[in-house]
């Protein structure tokens, strides 16, 4: 498997491939989470914007895994981490999280942060194995129950290691 590569906003072919990968990988959430995933409204133009304002990374050709990175004030946000079903168990998620840690260090951030839906307990466990801990819960607008949890991973500097 190839190393992660950063996808440019001009690489529409790769961004289209990533959009398909996200739809395939996140389809299992349909009927499990409420509110429904915002992924259903995501378009290639949204991925172009993500690549312009943040980062889009992919592994493989055809693309087998992807992740979005967005700089926040106190952390680097890791979003849309997805691995094609046939490629799971090959360390691709770990590779992308490691890349995100490197990028966070490069940007002077102390934490990686992500959010996952409260119903997706298997995701909570998978992210915990990658070193993330739950730091908060939240509600989507219009809901009176918890719908998501925030997880963080401390990024140590190369001096701390």
Can you describe what's shown?
The longest helix is centred in the N-terminal third of the chain and has 15 residues, at 12-26. The chain is built from four helices and seven strands, in the order E-H-H-E-E-E-H-E-H-E-E. It starts with a strand and ends in a 7-residue tail after the last strand. The protein has a seven-stranded mixed sheet, with helices on both faces. 30% of the residues lie in helices and 27% in strands. The protein is α+β, with helices and mostly antiparallel strands. The model has no long low-confidence stretch (mean pLDDT 93).
Helix content: 25-40%
Walk across the major sheet and give the strand order: 1-2-3-4-5-7-6
Task: Tell me the major beta sheet.
Answer: 7 strands, mixed
Average pLDDT taken over every residue:
93
Overall SS class: alpha+beta
Instruction: Tell me, briefly, the overall form.
Output: globular
User: What is the number of strand segments?
Assistant: 7
* Cα gyration radius (Å): 15 Å
Beta-sheet strand percentage?
25-35%
Low confidence ranges: none
Distance linking N and C termini: 27 Å
Count of DSSP H/I helices: 4
Q: What is the helix/strand order? A: EHHEEEHEHEE
């Amino acid at each position: 498997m190839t190393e992660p590569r950063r996808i440019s906003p001009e690489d529409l072919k790769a961004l289209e491939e990533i959009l398909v990968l996200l739809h395939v990988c996140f389809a299992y959430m349909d009927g499990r989470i409420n509110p429904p995933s915002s992924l259903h409204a995501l378009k290639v133009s949204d991925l172009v914007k993500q690549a312009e304002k943040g980062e889009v990374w992919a592994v493989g050709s055809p693309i087998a895994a992807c992740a979005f990175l967005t700089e926040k004030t106190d952390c680097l946000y890791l979003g849309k981490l997805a691995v094609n079903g046939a490629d799971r168990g090959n360390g691709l998620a770990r590779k992308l999280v490691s890349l995100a840690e490197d990028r966070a260090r490069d940007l002077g951030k102390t934490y990686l942060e992500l959010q996952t839906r409260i119903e997706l307990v298997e995701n909570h466990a998978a992210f915990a194995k990658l070193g993330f801990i739950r730091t908060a819960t939240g509600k989507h607008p219009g809901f009176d129950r918890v719908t998501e949890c925030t997880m963080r991973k401390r990024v140590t500097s190369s001096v701390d290691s």
